[in-house]
Each structure stands twice: as structure tokens, then as C-alpha cells.
Amino acid sequence: MTQVEQVKALVERTADKTVALAKEIWEYAEISYEEFKSAAALIEALKAEGFTIEEGIADMPTAFTATYTSGSGKPVMALLAEYDALAGLSQKAACPVCDPVEPGGQGHGCGHNLLGAGCFAAAVALKDYLADGNKDGTVIFFGCPAEEGAGSKQFIARAGYFDNVDFAYTWHPATINEVGSKGSVAIMGANFTFDGVAAHAGGQPHLGRSALDAIELMNVGCNYLREHMIDAARIHYAYSDPGGTAPNVVQSHAVIKYEVRAPKTSQAQELFTRVVDVAKGAALMTGTKMQYEVTMAFSDYVPNRTLGAVADECLQALGAPEWTEADYETAAQFLRTYPKATMVAIKENLYAHFDPDELEVMLKKPLHSSIYPFNPKETGYSSGSTDVGDVGYATPTVMFNVATACLGNVGHSWQNTAFACSDIGMKGTLRAAEVMTLAAIRTMEQPELIEKAKEELIKKNGGKYLCPLPDYVVPPIGKY
Length: 480
Hints:
alpha/beta, Aminopeptidase
């Protein structure tokens, strides 16, 4: 039996459990910091497989570790699981027509039910590999809530849980198969609260000091700031509390959320400081008082190039999920649900990867059936953010993508929720589990490779993980 065949057999042992777990978590569809049933399902499944559980880590009730140790316990390998859903994306499983299970309800529009279940399968496969071969090593399954919210991995890293981990692997449901060469950008967010003085807006407006005016002026200032920041940076905002619904009352209290992104953590922190200065100016102009509370921050993610080559080798060896004609037809049905304007954008994006003639063929059978190669010299960033970046500054870390949805599928959509509980999604999940298992085995059996990955990490972090959050910031449970 080859190593690839051995890994496939290991993952196959729990394939039915993995699919059932993915479907169970999909049904729960719990949002950030509220994933009690989802975490419990994973914990129960891991306990049954002989893992030791530590619940409520880093002051988060739905965060946990599941650990299995064999022999000396070295090396220590981590798998990073997520299981939170998104608000407003309820949708029936595998249904190519927008039809929510619960109108306005929650749904797994980013496929984190698949992500968590895939990590479960890999953790059990690695445990069995150690036990069957009487080998040394430790497998730690990290249950990480709230990736779609304020995150959890930065709090887990700050608490020191990755200090003795030798390397970490994870994956994400996607439309393509690749070990992503690009990084993702850092992000920092806060709630800005303005307090003024209420007054009758018609009779005595001169006695009022409007918190809503302060927020409006903050938005104007940040809009002018956009011209004077680097092209790769972003500023987002959303009203949290506009101060009431009565226009004849000067609003005395208002809250707005702001987030900034930039390729490097230091750049995001510098831009955030400028946003705070704008808020101070808005308060000064309106005679209000301003306070801000940092609620979240993720470091930028850069794949460990040493481990990236290993993961790429494993993904190439295992190949894309094995699609059937029924899978291709389902994928094509979903792709046809997008309006013409969206399809134009989808095709423009895919032209970067396929020749025009090849693309037309792919759009008829829109499931990725090849592997994009890893480029260790890539220095670019995608514009999204993930708290996996913080793990990547604490221990050598790689995240890869496996197709669980049709080519061109839009993330955080009802279509994505449907794919997350489909045969296509399940096939991608099991392939991802195989890749993580094979990559971890090949890494653990090459001590010199682990040392090289750690040397690369030291060049990136200077020898120590520095959390982008101030020490006083705790997980904003119920506040974000």
C-alpha cells in the first residue's frame, strides 16, 4: 500500500461520521460565539475517538482543544477547525433555487461546517496513524469559533496555546483546488461611541449636541482619508446605534463600527490610529464626547513557504475531488442562478486562469478538476482577512483550498449555503481531510523540514508572536 493509499484508507474509516457531522453542524447554523451545539457535536465525536478535551479555552465558551498523544508526544501538530455560520443566509440543502429553510435565518454561507468536519476526519486519521504504527507525536484539534465575527485564534495564540506546536495545517472550502500562494490582509476594528446632549430639535436645537452629527462627520472625514492611504488598504463602517428614530430629538448617543484593512499588521494599526484621530475631530466639531473600544484584530496571513511546498505536493498527489456527471449538472444549475452582470464578473475573473476556449468548456461543467500550483515566490495579498494569520505568526502554518462549490460561485451567498450540505461539498471535505493528513505525516517524519519551517517563521515574527490586540481586549462575546 502506498502512502497515498494508506491515507485514503485512514480517512475512509470515518467518512460516514465526517459527512454526518458536517450535516449536523450545517443544521445548527450557529453564528459567532454562539456555536454551542456545533462545538458540542465536535467534542462528542472527538471524545469517542479517544481525544482529551479542554473546553472554554482563552475565555471563549465555544472554543476548545482535543488532544491525542502517542509516545514522546513530539512533534506536535495542530489542525485549525471552524464551525460558525452567517446571519441571513438560510437556504435548503443542495437546492439550486433560493429557498430559505427559515426566512432571514442563519446559514453556512462560508462552509465552516465542512471546514470543521474535515479537520475532524484528519485529526482522527492522524491519531490512527500514530496508534497503528506505534509512532511518536501529538495531534491537537483546535476548535476555533467566530471566524466570521471578531475571531478567536488571536485570543488563543495570545494565551500561549500555540507556543509548543511545531506546525499547523488547515483548509477552507472554495471553488478551486490550490495551496494559496497569496497572503491575506490584516484587519482591526472598533466600536466608536459618541455622547452629546439631547434637546428639542425644533424648539431648542441650539441646546443640543448631536452624537449622530458626530458620526456623520466621522464618515465624511474617513471618506477624505481614503485618498491618502495605500491602494491596498480598506475602510469599512456600519451603524450600530444611530441614536433613535425621532427626528425631532437631537440624538444624544450613537455608536458606529469601523474596520480597517491593510497588507501588514503595522499598516493596519497606523491607519486605525488615523481613523481614531478623525473620530476625535468629529467629537470636537460637534461638542460631543467620544470613546472607542477595540473589538477585533487579525494579523496578516502569509503561508509558510516551506510547508506550502509540502501541502502542494500532497494536493497534487491526491488530486481534485472525483466528480460525477451528476455533480457537473448540479454545479451548472447553480451557476445559472447568477444574474447576467454577476456572470460577466465571474467570467472576467476566470479568464485569469483559463484560456477563452477552455473557459467555455469549463462553464458547461463548472467544477474545478485540476490543481493550481503553489508559487513560493508570490508576494501579493488577497483583500480578505482571517484569524489564521495570527496562528501563522505563532507557529509555521499553511491553509489550502479544496473545491466544494462550482467555479465562480460567490462566497457568503445562499448558493454557498446550499453547496455546504451537498454531495459536492462532502466530496471536497473528504479530499481536504486526506490532504491535511498526508501533509502532516510527511512533515512530522522530516525533522529537518520542521526546523526549516521554524527558521522561516523566525524571520517573519522576529522570534515571538505579538498579538495585534491590546492586552486589555477580551473576546467581545455579545458585543460584536
